[in-house]
């Protein structure tokens, strides 16, 4: 019995040694790019877009919380949140240092570009004048690259935004009571579309609007369908301007309208800071 017990002990010791010295199996490794973890998961992104993804993923790895209103301080970075009156799960957000969805996007691209280029909420970020390319919901994931911004909601109310990783995955600050996370891209429901961010020089005249709740239109007419309402003074890129339907508002009358390529919409020149016919903006040819 002693010899048998000794043999069993020796066998156990041998198996233990083999286990401790064997190569790690896939199941033992921490999630990485091959496992669908938080990383750049596809080729084709710019160096700046990859840095934005890496910045967001570092916050995921650090276990940072979603917090309503987080990330919208004077400078990009995590801040304590606020209570969302529509969400009981946000009661602890004022105690948590973190980001909401647009706060995370703002911080990621500020670190990537070296400047605070995406300050604002989800709508402001999706309709940014720093648009390099834009994609509709109907186009799906095929044209997207890591670092593209995925927006959810409607043209008048985009309520959520996330960064695409590639391979059908995204990094997001999703909701109160959760930490920043990696998720499968949700293409159904209210997925609105995606935008690729230009971190370099912006081409074309860049101007600012004034007023609050100013609607852009599908055509240069007050009767045309509404596209998006500027919540306040907003930086815009203007492609061209034309004479069309006269508009009377704010004590002014003007028939000049400007086409905004980032919104695929028109706005009366009354609400663009500058003269009635904008200097340096070409006339639309169509």
UniProtKB/TrEMBL annotation:
Residues 46-203 form the NlpC/P60 domain. Transmembrane segments: none annotated. It comes from the Bacteria. Keywords: Hydrolase, Protease, Signal, Thiol protease. The keyword Protease applies. Residues 1-26 form the signal peptide. Gene3D superfamilies: endopeptidase domain like (from Nostoc punctiforme). Belongs to the peptidase C40 family. This is NlpC/P60 family protein. It comes from Streptomyces cinerochromogenes.
